[in-house]
Amino acid sequence: MITAEQKPLEEIIAYIEPYDRIFLVGCNECVTVCAAGGRKEVGLLASALRLNSMKQGKTIEIKEITLERQCDPEYVEELASDINRTDAVLSMACGCGVQTLAGRYKEMPIFPAVNTLFMGASESQGIWAERCRGCGDCLLGITGGICPVARCSKSLFNGPCGGTCSGKCEISPEVDCAWCLIWERLKALGMEKRYEELMEAKDWRPSGGGGPRKIVRKDLVL
Amino acid sequence: MKTESKLERILASGNLAVTSECGPPRGARPEKVREKAALLKDHVDAVNVTDNQTAMVRMSSWAAGVIIKQMGMDPILQMVTRDRNRLAMQSDIIGAYSLGINTMLCLSGDHPKFGDHATAKSVYDLDSVQLVRMVQKMRDEGKFQGGADIDCPPKMFVGAASNPFAEPFDLRVSRLAKKIKAGADFVQTQCIFNLDKFEKFMEMVCDRGLNEKVYLLAGITPMKSAGMAKYMKNKVPGMDVPDEVIKRLEGVSKAEQPEEGIKIAVESIQRLKEVKGVHGFHIMAIEWEEKVPQIVEKAGLFPRPAVENL
Amino acid sequence: MMLRKKLTQGEFAVLVELNIPKGVDISELVTHVRHLKSRIDAVVIPDMDGGVMRMSALGGGAVIRREGFEPVIHIYGRDRNRMAIQGDVLAAQALGIQNLIVVQGDAMANSDHPAAKTVDDLNELDLLSMVQSLQKGLDLAGFDLKGKPAFFTGCQVQPIRDDKHLLEEYEKAKEKIAAGAQFIVVPPVFDIPAYTQILNKFKSLKVPVIATVFMLKNVGMARYISINDPGSGLSDELIGRIRKAKDRETECVHIAAEMIRSLKGVAQGVKISAVGWEDRLPAILDCAGL
Amino acid sequence: MQTLKNIEHDRMTGLKVLVIGGGVGGIRAALDLAESRRNVILIDTSYSIGGLMTRLDRTFPTNNCDLCTVSPHLSESSRQVYLDLKPMTRLETLTGEAGQFKATLVTEPRYIDMEKCTACGECYKQFPGAVRFTPGLDPRAPTCMRYPQATPYAFSIDMDKVTDIKALQKVCKADAILAQDQQQTAVVDVASVVLSMGAELFAPAVLEHFGGGRFDNVVTTLEYERIMSASGPFQGDLVRVSDRKRPKKVAWIQCVGSRGINKGDVPYCSSACCMISLKEAMVTKERFAENIETTIFYMDMRTFGKDYELYLDRAKNDYGIRMIRSRPHSIVEEAGTKNLAITYALEDETLQKTEEFDMVVLSVGFRVPGSSVDLARRIGVDLNAHDFIRADHFNPVVTSRPGVYVCGVAQSPKDIPETMVQASAAAGMAASNLPAAVDLPETELDFVPEKDVSGQAPRIGVFICDCGLEIGGVVDVGKMVEFSKAQPQVVVAKAVGYGCSSESMLLIEEAVKGNDLNRVVIGGCSPRTHETKFQDLLRRSGLNKYLVEIVNLRDQNTWTHMNQPKEALDKSFHLLSAGISGVAKNRPLMDQTLPMSRNALVIGGGVTGMTAALQLADQGVKVYLVEKNSTLGGLAKSIRRTIEGEDVGLFMARLAEQVSVHKNIMVLTDTIIVDHSGVPGRFKTGLQTGLRMNYMQVDHGVTIFAVGALPNRPDAYGLGIHQGIVTQLELDAVMEDHPEKIKAMSQVVMIQCAGSREPENPNCSRVCCQAAVKNALRMKTLNPDLEIFILYRDIRTYGFYEDYYRQARNMGVHFIRFSLDNKPEVWIENDRISVFTEDGILGRKIQFEPDCLALSTGMKADDETTEDLAMMFHLPRTGDHFFLEDHVKLRPVDMSVRGIFIAGTARSPKTIPESITEAHAAACRAQALLAKKEINLGAAVAKVDGTKCAACLICVRACPFSIPFINEDGYSQIDPAQCRGCGVCAAECPAKAIQLLAFEDDQIMAKVDGLFGGLN
Amino acid sequence: MKNFEPEIVAFCCHYCAYTAADMAGSKRLSYPPNVKIIRVPCTGKVDALHMMRAFEKGADGVYVAGCLEGDCHFKNGNTRAGQRVAYVQKILEDLGIEPQRLEMIMMSAGMGERFARTAFEFTEKIRELGPCPVKPIKK
Lengths: 222, 310, 290, 1016, 139
Known about the structure:
The structure holds five protein chains of five kinds. By secondary structure, chain A is an alpha/beta fold. Chain A has eight helices and nine strands. Chain A folds into two domains: 2-117, Rossmann fold; 133-207, no CATH class. Chain A has helices at residues 9-16, 30-33, 39-55, 73-76, 95-104, 148-151, 178-188, 192-195, and strands at 2-6, 21-27, 61-67, 88-91, 110-112, 114-124, 127-132, 168-169, 172-176. Chain A starts with a strand and ends in a 27-residue tail after the last helix. By secondary structure, chain D is an alpha/beta fold. Chain D folds into seven domains: 4-108 and 183-199 and 368-439, FAD/NAD(P)-binding domain, CATH 3.50.50; 109-181, no CATH class; 200-367, FAD/NAD(P)-binding domain (3-Layer(bba) Sandwich); 460-583, Rossmann fold (3-Layer(aba) Sandwich); 595-706 and 862-935, 3-Layer(bba) Sandwich (FAD/NAD(P)-binding domain), CATH 3.50.50; 713-857, FAD/NAD(P)-binding domain; 942-996, Alpha-Beta Plaits (2-Layer Sandwich), CATH 3.30.70.20. Helix content of chain D is 28%, strand content 22%. Chain E is α/β, with parallel strands linked by helices. Chain E contains four helices and four strands; from the N terminus they run βαβαβαβα. In chain E, helix 3 links the parallel strand 3 and strand 4. Classes of the chains: A alpha/beta, B alpha/beta, C alpha/beta, D alpha/beta, E alpha/beta. At the D-E interface, strand 4, helix 15, helix 16, helix 26 and helix 27 of D face helix 1, strand 2, helix 2 and helix 3 of E.
């Protein structure tokens, strides 16, 4: 899932400062699940923005709407009927959503209200951790299901660096050393030998090294 | 002989090699390099020139290496994969070689978080093992990483680092084996304070016959004080400083502690000389280069053999 | 792989004991068993153990079979006479059940039908011989059967009280094997070294020996076993471990998993008895690395 | 009260239970019976019910306001369909036998039609002499009733004092005064009778040495309560009667009139007085001034109840209440100051001391009133030596006449929790003379079918109650009505006088129907007490009961802001506005119900568990009785005789036999509880049985915890080292099995509080004092020459046990006191036991060389078992590992989770008869719940809008009860039957896909908006 | 600001604080009339949105009053509420509104005195702070 968190209020306020009528658009997908931009967060942010404008002695009109998915043109179309009654759009979706809106409503200033962070998994309620960097060439099959690209601070492919301490990464005792995890996992699977296989230099093209990526499924294209 | 490296020749001759290191200055004064290197002259076989050590910007390691080379000494070019991608690294390698540098050490490098450019994007196009592999391929197959032929391949004597103390311990030998498999000719270890553990490590290394495949230089660091020992124990990741060492340093007055530290270093060398698979020493006297000659002498490693005589 | 094959070829087998509902709602049973898909080798189904009336093991076995698992059903002499038992065993085979364990029926002291009449027409050895006979194509009266069943039949050992008792049970097991038992299920002991000794004793009988891992669920239960079954080897330390744990249920899962792991090299298989905690079986298997 | 007459009519058929006495005990018994669908007649000679408790300011040990704790019970009593309340009524004769008594009831004229009386207070204002109100110290008439929520909600007239009946009738606007009212006699069929007449408090006026009632500043504990009470003579201000000044030094004198020494005294202990005085002293410090010096003169501090010892410690250590062990022999009043001089002697000093106090409170005990003695004689139940109802030695709620039961202080002096326990127990016993609860027909109130209001625009009616002067006396009801009228969507707004009077209720009902209203706002008192009442009103009017909103104008406005009428009015506008805008968003809702499982699970097969199981099984309930040992019997099995000399072994054997053969009881010995789930009424518990640990799951509607306690065996005074050092329990067995050993002894020493009332086990074990006295008496009988010394800290032979204590002293048993910081020492030399103790009176150490040292070790909680169960069932425990009941005062056998009850020593240490009583009480409470066909879960459940749900799992993780799950359609689903209605999921749902019905976001937002909108 | 009368909203749990408020009433304990109560089944039901709404509508102070720690009828609704209050306090702070205007308070049903004292103290605190800087613009 894509994870995101709300931008500092100050930054959001600065974006919309010149406008009186704002469309606050949430998304019912990933950002809802990571509690950054679903219906509830939309409501909270709207409330906060209204409070702020009252504090400035200003009246601001905020229309709240949460789309099923902001990265699909059909859902984004829902805004079309009302978009003329607004001065700016504040999107609480991930970067994909913001860009889909910007692509569709070209005349309209569109601002992001969240910072899109990473593809992560929920560790437990309220905690999300990065798990995938979309490198386009998945090697989880040989690293025991733990990704060294996303989870090793140095994206090392051949083992831990010398900074590992008690299974934790040198950058912080909060961060697990991915290679320690991989090693433990390989041992548990009886696949220790795998470790000594050299992993050759990675082809970074599928991860964006070859420019913006795109998937075309010819069979599905209409 | 794979290369013209002085270090290779000494090691191949069966002598115990001695290396030390020299961190380039944070500025453009070549004399700084010379001053530091001069302290080591005659007492070591080669000098490691660090590459943006602790993720702080310094004079590039190949440039400093060239200055040292000009002094008639033998630099070991350190290269970390943090700051350059495979193109930049290869161009630096052939550049350095063209200026007479023939020995290098491949590392991944400290994370930028620890340095003075914490906001920098770290590159990590390759990791240290892949770098070793790349250099070896450049030398032995005469090919760039991308597959193209090299006109006059760099004949680098390739080194890698090994930390016998980092966790998980049961992975350390495998990791060394992997580096050897990738093409490492020699290995320099992390500073050794826990000699017992190191000996155990070496036993495992020998059990796998790795001592036959690589030259291993044991890392030695003299402690300036008990405070430094404690700091290394608690703050430096991957460092194993036994309490006895700290206690021993604390057992003498503050003024005597540096002397005691040197004593410990010398004793360590004496003991490790006997360990199977140890082919030399890498003395890392952090900001204390002036003491290196003394250690080398006291440890009975002086004078250094002259290469011409081999 | 079939249980028989696995056990006889010396591979480690994982059996799980599941309770059959008192009633006809099998949804929970089916849900639980589905979570174990491809993780276990067989499902052991006791028959009205403790004297509590519920769906018969035969019926339960058929349900389990339908779900694609290999059932192992208990047969015993307390509630049925030789007519009923032979009939059921034949029916079992027809329904795809190929494994039996001959057990002693539990006492009726805590039964929900304490007034029921017990039958005890056949004892354990009789039952084993009966199976042998049926397999030869003859019923107990000597009449021919139309088609011979083929079973993989095990027997059960009583909880071991002490060394003397161990010898007695060993001798009995010997007889049971002579009467046709092809594997032995040994009741749980929580002290692994002691259990290893017991298991080794039975291993000398040269048939596969299956150890039982019994799920402790709380302090009260552990305390009860430690007081009332001195042979169980359930120590105060183990009780203390549960008591001190932050999450006691998880700790209990860990304990069971640890036992499974330590029995892996010792016994030919384990029977996990998690009755009531079926929903935690996947966690136990995960934790045991199975 | 709406249909007293109709109820009378309906109730003429079917058997009933007659409960005599409307104190807390009687109310509890009546409510328990009514809840379990038994018809009850509750009679009281007074004109309103409530008894002594309603006159107390606060109750120990929670120091809660009494009114607040008792009032829900009172209002509940008027709601119960099965309950027929007859004030001013007495039982004249009782003929026939259990199951078919004929009771003759005589009702005195009230001269007021309760149907019409609104309790406006006008009659009292005009004719204070003739209209009855609170007796005693109260010089003012707060609302002309004994307490604000009097039941029935009406006055009564003392016709003897009426001079001009016409004039009186004239002041009554409700035309409620009946000049011709007459005494009425009725004969009713009753199956059983519960006596709960309570007792009076001793009037110390006879005690010359304490002033004989002449000194202004000498009051009784009850009078002191009234002085401190908000509804008392000084509006809750603590002042002296003589000069209305705040006292600086107050003394309490214990045992005034009890534990007989003086003229007019009784010999027994009144049990509750020590705690009452401690409470009063603490409240004095807490509420009035830290620096008021409080002193208690006492003989033995008898804080033997659950956690009462901790209360005593708090009084001494945290509040600095001075405790003097002495019995003062006189009080002298100083002429000018009206201060009081108390003369007393300390036990270790020969000199007398005199000290001056501003106020003296006499701690008076209970007395049986003549009327109770008469009643007992009339109906033929035996009395004991002290004129209390004589009770069975094993089952203290059973009287000498079959079918007649007793509870509360009528049986023996006791405090409120014990009264509540006995009341429930008596109710349970009384019910057993009626058909089994499971066979009874369900009675449902008939309501008209609900109108469909969906899609209609809100038509709101606002009805504002003045609650006498409680609301109307502070704010102008008219202005509130005007304000409400001006609010959007409000169709009708009216003032309705006492909104909860039957007359007003009718008026509202008519207004709802007449104006086609679809939403109602009631401005009145707290919805906590009155919401159900108005919900019923809506149902009668054909509206869904969730379309009403109660605005709390009284408890949270006029009561608290009575001195700021202007602000209070402004606030009432805000509150009404919030209520009105909120109610507009209310939606009709259905209560969630589940069918009730009629089985019971009883955990623990000791005397308590067996008694409870038997009681329930006799009522047709299927009981699973679970015992972890291999035989039934528990701790009581090891006790041989009670203090009264009854054979416990025989009793236990009979009980076990009855239980074992009962067709409704399934006894599961060797059985452990291993898991638990479900909701009250539909629990599911996993059991494992026998060494094979066979698993089974049982469904049950209720659970009774009777897991008992463990005999304490502290590592103290050489216990376990020498065979001559034994516990009282072991001594009990020696006397029974080897009397010759006792005969061979010449000296025995007993040490009390061994392992109790000490830091590691701070509470009193309650049973040990009577056990020591019991054993001492029995040994003296076996061997009259035996010298017995009992070393004690306080002798706590409460109630009638005091008789045995006195008897022991008379027989020459020596009692020597020691203190916690100077405990006796035990030495063993050459196999001889030596006991050393400091004798306070002699002032030196004395030494004994007894043949036997008996330690009173008491009991301690079974920590391991209670901990296990508490975790599985989510129940709280006390600091010393006993289970903690839901309300220490009023719900002593209920646990915080509905449907789970607690009895016996698992709650706190107690004797066998006390455990039996609790077992009956728990069974009775359980039965009340089981009598319902369905479990009503209310309407406040979470509901998921699947189209909005993002299946994020937040609700699944956040729910404290793990109810939500993601269903096959991929969205969260919440089973309304399992949802507890906290709303955590709704508040955390990031997609706002969950709403908590009855508290939906738009409703809460509308209330917030209402608080700020619609004004000016 | 002497004459400033703050508007205060208290979200009270039915099982504890609301009962305590009733008890304060039955004891006739006086507290400032500025405090107005909205009843909720559990403070765990009080959404951040509700707290914000109160400020938007013109509250000068808001508090959420739930059961004592460990006493929640629903296990942990009160602690969840406490966490939410802290979250909203942070939003207020970011908006330049004193976070002290919002508070989580815990009490039991028996604490009538505590209810009154809390109401008094909270009102005084808000009085000190003065009117909320976001008073809605009166139309």
